[in-house]
Amino acid sequence: MLLIPCPWCGPRPQTDFTYGGDGTVVRPAEDAPQAAWADFVFVRDNPMGPHRELWHHSAGCRRWLVVERDTVTHDITGSFKPGEVPS
Amino acid sequence: MPDLARASARASALATVSRPGVGPDCGVRLSERPADALVQVAVPAAARAAVADALGHALPDPLTAIDIPGKSTRLLWVSADQWWVEARDGTAPADLAARLAAAGARPTDQTQARVVVHLAGEHTRDLLAKGWALDLHPRAFPAGACAQSSLAAVSVMLAAVGGGAYDLYIPRSFAQSLWDWLLDAGAEFGVGVD
Amino acid sequence: MTTQSFRNAEGGLIDRATPLDFTFDGKAFQGFAGDTLASALVANGVRLVGRSFKYHRPRGLIGAGVEDPCGLVRLGAGDRAEPNTRATLTELFAGLTADSQNRWPSLKWDASALTGLAGRLFPAGFYYKTFISPQVLWPTYEKIIRAMAGMGTCPEGPDPDVYDDRFAHADLLVVGAGPAGLAAALAAGRLGQRVILAEQDMRLGGDLLAANRSIDGRPALDWVADTVAELEALPDVTLLPRTTVFGYHDHNLLAAVERVTDHLPHAPAGLPRQRHWKIRAGRVVLATGAIERPLVFADNDRPGVMLASAARAYVNRWAARPGTRAVVVTNNDDGYRSALDLQAGGIEIAALLDTRPEGGGALAQMARDAGLSPRHGMAVARALGGHAVTGAEITALSGGGATETVDCDLIAVSGGWAPTLHLHSQARGKATYDESLTAFVPTDPKQAHESVGAAAGDLTLAGALAAGSRAGGDDTLAPPADDHPAAPIQALWQVPKPPSGKGKRFVDIQDDVTAEDVALAHREGYESVEHLKRYTTLGMGTDQGKTSNVNGLAIMAGLRGQTIPAVGTTTFRPPFTPVTMGTFAGREAGHHFAPIRRTPLHARHDALGAVFQTAGLWLRARYYPLEGETMAEAVAREASHVRRIGGMVDVSTLGKIDIQGPDAADLLNRFYVNGFKALPVGKCRYGLMLREDGIVLDDGTTTRIGDTHYYMTTTTANAVTVMRNLELYLQVHWPDLDVSVASVSDQWAGVALAGPRARDLLARVADIDVSNDAFPFLAYREGAVAGIPARLFRISYSGELAYEIHVPSDFAPALWDALLEHGADLDIRPYGTEAMSTLRIEKGHMVIGTEIDGRTTADDLGMGRMVSTKKPFIGHVLKDRPGLTEGGRKQLVGLVPVDKRTPIPETCQIVKPGVVTGRDPVPIEGHVTAGTFSPSVGHPIALALVKDGRARLGETLHAVSPTTRVRVPVTVTSPVFVDPEGERLHA
Q: A70, C393, C463, C695: which one has the fewest Cβ atoms less than 10 Å from its Cβ?
């Protein structure tokens, strides 16, 4: 069970969170073409190594956060508030 | 028009649960402590000062709960820009909500959404540790700390209130189930109800 | 009662004042407190303890602890029986009953072994090559194999015991309470750290309990006692004996099982049988010791062939002699220590064989001083005897092949020590081969852990103490110990077959895998260790190859002409030792399997005799049967009553969300497919939500209760998802929207009041004008109902004139009572979720999971006209993708049985008449989503999703279920069976 650092609450057990999928995809503009929306909804990279993903602190503060997790080792190297994710 | 007195009679979510008495060997004692008002409040940054004025106390820092001195009011941090205001001085939820709204905050009445259970006794931590994954050692979770996490798979708020005692804020619909769990999990320590 | 004729008169860590009676295979024995079942059997001279997995060969104890592969017994009886329990780890208690396994009719005379059938059935890879064809015979073969192969049998009934969970946190977790672990815990404890010390044994001390060693010039056990006493006095140190750390997971979470009451004849009330610890540790010290390896020679599985360290443990710790006359064979110095201890324990050493051509260190000299005569370059070629060892055929390894026979009843073997690196490996640490140790040692830890002492490959006592102390944070605490300089070990992976060629040379004794099986796997191309493991089952037993892994892969390396590191090891996975399923279930069993949500009206439903139904975690009142009524009768009665007169139903499980802020209307407008910006205060609106992929997610009503204040309801099923989605979009995608949301599902209870007399009742109890003009359809009012402050909604799910009354949860019982009381003469009655379902099917209303099934669009469900074309909303782009808009999609329709009689089950697929279902695929026209008997129309009806269904009204199709052999001719109709014009709900 992972220990996920919530930017508001500190480290909390994985069971308190809900996985929210790829945190790198950006919701397109409402008038973006259908292909851009299809990419946003359906197309995902499957990186081996560090990856940014959305998690929801469901049993805690109910905030969404962006977690940088290594998909091979499960090492977590960062945890950010949305909008404060370094590029 | 039917009898208006009905409205004042709140029915407890724990009306039908088992309530074993407190014996000399009880390692954990439970008691139900309904709040008069429990209002969740979203406070826009611009309204913080006005809300503090309205409450007579600054809003607490993350992961902490404050009992306002001289008032039967507790403030608990809930989330970014969100707190609970819990009153035990007879304040009506609507009145409290109106005061908070007047200060520019967005109140939501949760008085009857949570069942407050007070836990005390020498084995309280041992009992909680059966279903609570966070560290409750006094060095990690001292009096005045509060946290929301899962207790036996139910999302609850837990506040350390000093003297090794805790207040547990249980979502009403889960209260009976979690109460039963506390009695069963605590059997080895002896659980009594005040 | 058999006397303990193999018990020495003195010595051992047993309490001779506390004799304990027990039975093995029905025979009565006696042991002492402090015994394990294994040591008590040894003390009673029991050598034969089981039959092997495949060949049904007689087996005895090989180890004395966690490594033992053969001493598996069924413990206890009835539903408490536990198969495959290690006798070596079972603490003896008064009244213990154990039985041997895998034998028939008796342990001594086993039919399968006598016929030799098993030997022919199970060559290496028998899983894969036996009985592949003909397939029809497999069930027959399977029965034979299941009866003959395998381990113990499981109890049939539910487990009557209680299991427990426990989270724990520590600065330092020490695994293993041998010298290294005790030293680590002591050092860290003295520094004020929070320490947990877990030890699988009943006593702390590790290998020191079984060895005649000294520390600081005193008996080692004195040092153990002092250390334990000091640790017990430290407030932040937790000592956990009888606790096996079996899993090392991510982020330094370790799982352990504490055997709380297994060792007690009767568990005290309230105490669990076992406790599942989940320990989050800052650092971990792995002081897990090492396991001695056996030697591979012919018939090395005969009862009486034992690890030398185990034999000395029985003698030293339990004063129990595993034989009277021993042959000791070793490839390293430690075997000499065992020979010395056995001799001191009263066992005659018939021969001491050192496979090395010459040499031996200080211990060899001590053995010579003690009158022993080591014979170099010699090994045991074959064990003699059947149910017990009667002798050893010994041979010189340098050639010739000549053998001599030595009479003995014990062959003590030492093949060198392998560090117990399982947890290190589970934590993704590496295993590196160490030539000087001829074993893998832990290297390159990936998490915050460190292996110390024998677990790290340092077999000296002083080294273990020093490394443990250092790991605990104090490098000054390192008492001297009585170590002796050792000569190098000899790599000896198998002893050649005896000249007679007789006997099986076992590598994995639990799984009956021989050196010949390894060679066969190699010949057939299964060369990688992972393939070798799966093909031969090497290391796949309950012992996970603790004594066999290195020998097996070394033999494979030899066959491949490669080095051992080039061949590598298999991956170690949790659990380190078997853990009973109940422990994993923990407290989540029985009525605590999952938390239960109850509505504020639960006790009221209960009092009315409701039958409950689960809906997610909720318990909902399904129907209220009258005396002698079936469910179908009750449901039809309740539904009919609502349509004719009126009823009330608990809708408190709906998701309820408080939405506030200047941008609230904008948020709703983006979430729902239909417009919400123009919704006035005091009005409700039905809304439909899509997912981004254009598929319907949820529906519900949202009410504007103030200028910038809305009250949203969601379906019961999607309450959590919709709330999380609102938070996602507000926090991640649209942070510019100034809106606050809060779940109020638990704050508000709801009762729907429906039917022709609903208004009559509401007028009696509410303090507002409820006339149709003052409170029209889709209006919202605030007022008092029976004196209770309430939110009133003129909305209808049943299709009748209906209201929803929401009150703070604690007032719900009072509301319910008032409605029943004041509605009594109007004959308003409660109805359950099943009648609610019938009413909604009659109206063609959809439900999550059946019609809203994650595949349907708004248009599929007949809601296409609701979808705005004037604004963006979630899913607005992808709802138009080709797959969702082209023809041939399944659309919501109604079905009526042609005979107006036959029910249409919900499991049915829909085909054209004449289509024969059976083995071959057939074209499917659709499927039934919901079926019921409609009291309003007087016959069964159903909802279905049918290809182009709206264009097929009137067509006859067949609803079929090949598995239940149902075939119902049906007519396609509109999904609205009752009041298609909606006159009733506007009444």
A: A70
Q: Which residue has the higher pLDDT, C761 or C545?
A: C761
- The SS3 call for residue C180 is helix
- Contact, C316 vs C341, CB < 8 A? yes
Q: The domain B37-109: what is its CATH number?
A: 3.30.70.1520
Query: How close A12 gets to chain B, by Cα (Å)?
Result: 7
Work out whether the CA dihedral C141, C144, C146, C148 comes out positive or negative: negative
CATH of the domain at A38: 3.30.2270.10
Amino acid type, A39: D
Question: C267 and C144 in one domain?
Answer: no
Token pair 């010459």 in the structure block, residue: C358
Q: Of C194, C660, C789, which has the smallest distance from its Cβ to B7's Cβ? A: C789
C14: its two tokens: 């047993």
Least confident piece of the model among B13-22, C31-40, C473-482:
C473-482
Distance, in Å, from the CA atom of B63 to the CA atom of A18, rounded to the nearest integer, reads 20
Q: What's the pLDDT at C132?
A: 55
* Pairwise pLDDT comparison (C147 vs C49), residue with the higher score: C49
Is the model's pLDDT at C399 over the cut of 90? no
58-77 in chain C: CB under 8 A from chain A: none
Host H or E run for residue C72: strand C72-75
Chain B residues in contact with C252 by the CB 8 A cut-off are none
Strands B191-193 and C348-354: unpaired
Q: How far is A48 from chain C (nearest CA, A)?
A: 16
Phi, psi (deg, nearest 5) at residue C412: -100, 120
Q: Does B83 touch chain C (CB under 8 A)?
A: no
CA distance C245 to chain A (A): 16
The pLDDT > 70 percentage for chain C reads: 96
Task: Out of B62, B133, B155, name the one closest to residue A8 (CB).
Answer: B62
Chain B CB within 8 Å of residue C658 CB? yes
Domain contains A85: no
Q: Which of B78, B133, B150 is nearest residue A61 as measured by Cβ atoms? A: B78
- Assess if residue A54 is contained within a domain: yes
**Mean pLDDT across chain C, nearest whole number?**
94
Strand partners, C434: C439
Give the mean pLDDT of chain B. Answer: 95
Best mutation target among C740, C744, C819 (most B Cβ atoms within 10 Å) is: C740
Superfamily in which the B26-34+113-193 domain is placed by CATH: Probable tRNA modification gtpase trme; domain 1 (3.30.1360.120)
CB-based contact C253 A82, cutoff 8 Å = no
Q: What is the DSSP string of C330-393?
A: ESSTHHHHHHHHHHHTT-EEEEEEE-SSS---HHHHHHHHTT--EEETEEEEEEEESSSEEEEE
Which of A8, A10, A15 has its CB closest to that of B79? A8
Establish if C620 touches chain B: CB-CB under 8 angstroms. no
**The pLDDT of residue C398:** 86
Find the range with the poorest average confidence among B160-174, C451-465, C475-489, C922-936.
C475-489
Domain ranges of chain B: 26-34+113-193, 37-109
- Residue C682 scores a pLDDT above 70: yes
DSSP C624: -
pLDDT in tens, C207-227: 999 999 999 999 999 999 999
- Compare CB distances from C592 to B114, B184, B190 and report the shortest one's residue: B184
State which residue of chain B sits closest to A62, comparing Cα positions: B79
Which residues of A, range 37-66, sit inside 8 Å of C by Cβ? Answer: 37-38, 40-42, 54, 56, 58, 62-64
CA distance A40 to A77: 25
Question: In chain A, how many domains are there?
Answer: 1
Q: What is the pLDDT of residue C78?
A: 86
> Any alpha helices (H) in C807-912, and if so which ranges?
812-823, 833-843, 882-885
Residue C149 has pLDDT above 70, yes or no: no
In a domain, A29, yes or no: yes
Question: C102-120 pLDDT, tens per residue?
Answer: 777 777 777 766 656 556 5
